[in-house]
Amino acid sequence: MINCNGVLVSSLLKGDEIVIQSLFYELSISERLRYTKGKILLWETHYFRIIAALRRHRFIIPMDFTMDHLKNEVDKTVEQNTTLFEDYLLHFKFIKNEKGVFFILTADGVPSYTPLSSDYYALDLYKEEWISNGFFSNLSNTNQTLREIAKTYANENGLEDCVLLNDQKKLVEATSGTLYLIQGNNILTPNLESGCQDFALRAAFNLWLEKGQGEYKLFEQVINPFELQKSEEIIILSIEKGIQNVSHYRKTNYTKEKAGLLFASFVNQLD
User: Fold this and answer.
1) Could you report the per-residue pLDDT of 170-224, keeping only the tens digit for each?
2) pTM score
3) Which of 256, 239, 255 shows the shortest CA–CA distance to 87?
4) Are strands 248-249 and 217-221 parallel, antiparallel or unpaired?
5) From its phi and psi, is residue 216 left (phi > 0), alpha (psi between -120 and 50) or beta?
6) Domains of the chain (ranges plus CATH)?
7) Which DSSP letter does residue 11 get?
8) How far apart are CA 219 and CA 60, in angstroms?
């Protein structure tokens, strides 16, 4: 079931023709969310990220795009989906044309967050092109094409993922999410000035770490690629998978003992 600007349809062919045409010709922005245990995970943070992105893309925001209204549209869409899964991955797409701003919303059933797997997960640096660490780099739309090319590069080279670099040759993020390097009691992650996406889950996880989680201390900073080889563990955080541990970077192997316990504690406090 698809929510086409407030109208539930089983196919986009049944949706508003103006909205469908705008998908091909007009500017749009996207946001991915997770629906779990009967509610939208981090909805307030996601909502303000959506509104900020609309403003920065010069969209004229409709008056009815309130937090409650969009939440009701999510609830309405989820209720019409039948799946064996308890969680849903939501995909909001907001489209602008000369008649205003419209949205399309889909909900797909996905497994709940699980503990770290022991699967082989290798990554390397993607160095064929770089992300500009400017004001718009934190928006997901800005470098989406580059991320897709880097994903293809990883697949062609037998890798599970790639780490993107900015034009200063510093770490930005993995193609699948936010990058965290664990070194003893320190956790390093690229700051927004590096050009990484300002995900809602990233913001919540960082805030949780900054409030003090045992012996760990978070450092949001510019990170040199050499830090990858100096780390004990590397994790990738995303709304889709939750946490993904990295097993290999070139000739460096990583453990996963700390990351699993840390993320489990974070997820538990979100309830």
Assistant:
1) 999 999 999 999 999 999 999 999 999 999 999 999 999 988 766 789 999 999 9
2) 0.90
3) 239
4) unpaired
5) beta
6) 2-110 (3.30.470.10), 122-268 (3.20.10.10)
7) S
8) 36
